[in-house]
Amino acid sequence: xxxxxxxxxxxxxxxxxxxxxxxxxxxxxxxxxxxxxxxxxxxxxxxxxxxxxxxxxxxxxxxxxxxxxxxxxxxxxxxxxxxxxxxxxxxxxxxxxxxxxxxxxxxxxxxxxxxxxxxxxxxxxxxxxxxxxxxxxxxxxxxxxxxxxxxxxxxxxxxxxxxxxxxxxxxxxxxxxxxxxxxxxxxxxxxxxxxxxxxxxxxxxxxxxxxxxxxxxxxxxxxxxxxxxxxxxxxxxxxxxxxxxxxxxxxxxxxxxxxxxxxxxxxxxxxxxxxxxxxxxxxxxxxxxxxxxxxxxxxxxxxxxxxxxxxxxxxxxxxxxxxxxxxxxxxxxxxxxxxxxxxxxxxxxxxxxxxxxxxxxxxxxxxxxxxxxxxxxxxxxxxxxx
Length: 386
What we know:
Blueprint: H1 2-14, H2 19-49, H3 59-62, H4 64-78, H5 81-95, H6 99-102, E1 105-106, E2 111-112, H7 130-149, H8 151-173, E3 179-181, E4 188-190, H9 201-218, H10 224-235, E5 239-240, E6 246-247, H11 264-279, H12 286-300, H13 335-347, H14 356-367
Antiparallel strand pairs: 1-2, 3-4, 5-6
Helix pairs in contact: 2-4, 2-5, 2-14, 4-5, 4-7, 4-14, 5-8, 7-8, 7-9, 8-9, 9-10, 9-11, 10-11, 11-12, 13-14
């Protein structure tokens, strides 16, 4: 019901515009985006599965996880079985790398876990990081939800959907004891079992995204309260710039908003979490998406077209420019973001950035329906899942 309502609202916003021209332009862009996506994605999958399934270096979380997410998002946007086939191939390879299938012991927990550990970020100690679990499990649950909602896909991929959903559920359960309510009345957060410290925002919310997609796939709000509390924790640590844009630190403290700015790559995880929550009426609203759009258009992408390293507009524009397309889920609801990111997609060297297909998939989804609003106006409330 909500999805149909937002569709009518979008039409009201756009009815006064040149609809036919917009539709033609969007269709052409969508075709181009899919062609660019197809030109990269198969090679990424084949290169991955040609290697032994291992995660000790942490590579899977920041390389193949992007490929998994790109395929899951493109399947949701197009329902094309080509992407389902590639997803199953890569996800089975990723599942084979889990610690319980490789007989690798988590040194901190003292046992073998059904998730993807690494020794790269922990001074040589093999440890399962919540953020790694989140970014690998989330697309598996996303795939399961898409298949379960689509009768055609279900006939062919129901068993795979159940398999990947089970893998995702087992993996996120590893981190159940890292969650704590507080410190604010409606807040919640995750800590690092190895250090005892609060996790950075993106590391918490990567797991939050996996929880969201698992709940979507099961149709049960099993993780909803923890998701809501993580969302409040994040929202309460967003700072408002003079122009109304949201700014935030990479690792704010428990008791304040912190200082400095998060890099745009890790920030993309938080942006994703905010949009997903807004779609499901969890804490964030259309007003928050407008503020994020201002962050993107006024701070991240500079007037000369270069891309800053941080959400505050600082840093060498050459380092992380290719990651800006990962803010693309915002483009479904914010017209200015969609138009600017489409321009960036035409100018960035996408073939040099492993995460490019994920950004392209987000933009394909954005082209499926016109974005709701100009960047300075208040959008209608994002749709929940049908």
